[in-house]
Amino acid sequence: MAERLLEPFPPTEDRFTNDAERPASPFSRPPVPHLRLVPPLPEDDGVADGDVRTMALGEFDFERGGRVEQVSLAYRTWGRLNPAGDNAVLVLHALTGDSLCAGDNGWWGPVIGPGQGYPIDTTRFYVICTNVLGGCQGSTGPGSIDPATGHPWGMRFPLTTIGDIVAAQRRLVERLGVRKLIAIGGSIGGFQALEWATRHPELVSAVAPLAASGALDAQGIATHSELGRRAIMADPNWMGGDYARHGVFPEQGLAIARMAAMVTYNGRDNLNQRFGRNAAQRPALYESFGQTFDIEGYLHYHGAALVKRFDANSYLYLTRAMDLYDVGRNGGESYWLDRIGADVPITLAGISSDWLFPPEPIAALGETLKRLGKDVVYEEIVSPHGHDAFLKDWDRVNEIVAGFMQRAETARRRHTQFADT
Q1: Does the reported pTM lie above 0.85?
Q2: Which of these is catalytic: 34, 300, 385, 387?
Q3: What is the predicted pLDDT for the residue at 414?
Q4: Is position 205 annotated as part of the catalytic site?
């Protein structure tokens, strides 16, 4: 079954420098299919580092009910798996991210690469990054074809959780021959890292959830997730999730959802320093009235950019998965955290100006892990950039990741020596 695989979309900058770089209004172009169906690349051991592949994983039962007869994940790898199968690093992407985590256009390009100049050195580690289950960058999700109807699943796709996302990843990495892995990611990727460490501890040799606590709080659910979902579902073109069948797309709703989310990704001081109350420097992308401000152009730009590369139903499903996540579900926080091995290095990282995932609950999670006797380090990124600092403040991020990887490698060698005795 062909999966939906988006054509690469160039990384966007926070500000556009001239009108030629500014995208045209998404509402001014003629109706076209939103996403182009591209056949997945065949699995082939000879593919180059960073090439996207898909793996069929078979029938899949979802945590909260529902079954899909054939689930596939899109993924990329860098480096080579060693004979012991224990040098894998699973890099876990954020909400609208994809499997392209390394290289010139990778969303974590400064962190991952060949040689000692990178904290995650692909000459030593086998890096894997998947597009999440429920996503729209090649993995099975609501935009995939339901074989029973011949149409996209839409809202008939089973409700997807972080547990489901990680369970699908486990199938993939085991088929790749991985026996132990380091799990690292930020935001919703941090939730996935926690899920790996607590629900699949026998496979995890080290874990680093960044910019993520054990659960999203009420303000995060409200401002980051529910406002966006309401905008999408109120768009007349959403059509109950069946917009693909009608040849339309809820562009306005998805753009507004992205605008609301962008506010939660930024620190207040950063927005004030960059934009303040400055008047708009160029025409707005969307209908406006009266005096407009520079910050409006920033939001419009990111809203217009997302509709070119992301699916609206996937946005609904993945924000709901983010809201539903609770590391302590079905047993309590201490019970699940105590399943992490005492010798497994853990690095938690908070961001001083982050109000989507404030640093205080992350530090508190670290204290709980310490009380349970775990090998945990809490780091803080002091930055005005807010939640997105884990994707921007490269010097500090690299420092934190490098320290974590050194601890992880030391633990791996110690475990190997112990196993050989």
Answers
A1: yes
A2: 387
A3: 83
A4: no
166-192 average pLDDT score:
98
Residue 113: the pLDDT is 98
pLDDT of residue 23: 37
Q: Is 328 helix (H, G, I), strand (E, B) or coil?
A: coil
| Partners of 210 in beta bridges | 186, 349
Amino acid at 380: E
Catalytic annotation, pick one of 98, 121, 354, 388: 354
Of 139, 144, 187, 353, which residue is the catalytic one?
187
Tokens standing for 137?
Answer: 């960058």
Q: How many residues does the chain have?
A: 421
- What is the arithmetic mean of pLDDT over 252-279? 94
Neighbour count for residue 75 (Cβ, 10 Å): 22
pLDDT attached to residue 32: 33
Q: Is 221 exposed, middle or buried (0-12, 13-18, 19+ CB in 10 A)?
A: middle
Phi first, then psi, for residue 213 (nearest 5°) are -105, -160
Report the DSSP pairing between strands 126-130 and 376-381.
unpaired
246: annotated active-site residue: no
Task: Verify whether residue 19 is a known catalytic residue.
Answer: no
